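pls ignore typos typing on phone
flavin mononucleotide + seq
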Amino acid sequence: MSLGGAGVQPDPLFDAIFERQCTRSVYDGRPVPADDLTAMTEAARVAGCSVLLVTGKPKMEQVLELIIAANTAQVEDPGFVSELKHWLRFNPAEAVSLRDGLYSACSGNPSLPSWIANPAFGLVFTAEGENAKCADQVRSSAGFAVFVTDRNDAEHWVQAGRSYQRFALAATALGVRHAFLNQPVEVARYRPELAALLGAGDRRPDLVVRFGYANPMPRSLRRPVSDVITAA
Ligand SMILES: Cc1cc2nc3c(=O)[nH]c(=O)nc-3n(C[C@H](O)[C@H](O)[C@H](O)COP(=O)(O)O)c2cc1C
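k done
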């Protein structure tokens, strides 16, 4: 048997892979046209997972309230803060040497020498400050996409990730940016409240993504695949 010359099937989601990023900035407030919202949710269709869109301002404020409540719980949890700090890269030298974690420039924060950043972090990372950032981010966004799954098992966690990735690529292809605000699913006691607010019934919110329009931000660095997956 030989392979035929079927040619390359162009796919806008494939073409968006290099452009996609989590854009953690304040957006410009413009709404996303209905046709584009439909295309993004259609692209995200996978078995066992649905995308619930929230674009009305009053409902977005209610989701923001849960984000702020859960964010406050996280910022006041010393275990969470120490793990977060472990993953922060405060300047280009740290980002390039480790090639993982969250580089400050990706979130619009200034670059600082490690000897200043480490002691200063506890002073500037406050619930009040972080909550104000979340509020600006949400109020400048066009909406939320919440990924809800039918069951809480490994198969459905993967389906939520696939659905998100397809949504993110379709959004990117349409010039729409996105970022996670997952606090209400990360702090377990807020997850049922989020499900009730969205009318999700028995389904489980797994990922909370805001979307809208903004310029790109600096990209996250990643280690090469050969660094993290080795052949047996
Ligand atoms: C399951 C999951 C949950 C995440 N939750 C958050 C979050 O709540 N807030 C946030 O700022 N980033 C969150 N991130 C975003 C990652 O930090 C981001 O994907 C990573 O920095 C890679 O950057 P990129 O997506 O721009 O390439 C999450 C990522 C994953 C995979």
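The mean pLDDT is 95. Strands lie at 49-54, 88-89, 102-103, 143-149, 177-180, 204-212. more later
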